[in-house]
Write a structure and sequence with these properties.
Length: 105
C-alpha cells in the first residue's frame, strides 16, 4: 500500500511539472588550516571549470581557513538529478583534495 501511494505521489508531482532541486552544500572542517589566498585561487579555478554556480563561506583563525562550506547550484544546467548529485559530489571532493594538497599552511 505504501509503495502504491509513493508511486501515485511521484506521478502526481511529475504531472504537475515538479522539478527536483539541484542544490547541494558540502561543509568541511580542515585538519590542517589552509592559506586564504591559495584557497580562493583554487575556488576561482574550480568556478571557471564548472557549469554549476558556486558559493563558499569560510571560517578563519589567525588568517588561515579552518572550515569551509561549499554550495553547488545546478538548477540552470541541463544535468538531470541522477547526473548532478554524483558529479557535484565528485567535483567537491576534487576541490577539497586540491586545497589540502596545494594550500596547506
Amino acid at each position: 500500500m505504501k509503495t502504491l501511494i509513493s508511486i501515485l505521489l511521484c506521478s502526481l508531482l511529475a504531472a504537475c511539472g515538479f522539478q527536483s532541486i539541484k542544490l547541494v552544500g558540502y561543509g568541511k572542517k580542515l585538519d590542517v588550516p589552509v592559506y586564504e589566498a591559495c584557497f580562493f585561487d583554487k575556488f576561482e579555478e574550480y568556478r571557471s571549470l564548472t557549469s554549476y554556480l558556486l558559493s563558499v563561506e569560510v571560517e578563519k583563525a589567525e588568517g588561515q581557513i579552518t572550515y569551509y562550506e561549499l554550495t553547488i547550484d545546478g538548477t540552470n544546467t541541463e544535468d538531470p538529478s541522477e547526473v548532478f548529485t554524483p558529479k557535484s559530489f565528485k567535483e567537491s571532493k576534487e576541490f577539497m583534495e586540491n586545497i589540502v594538497n596545494e594550500c596547506s599552511a
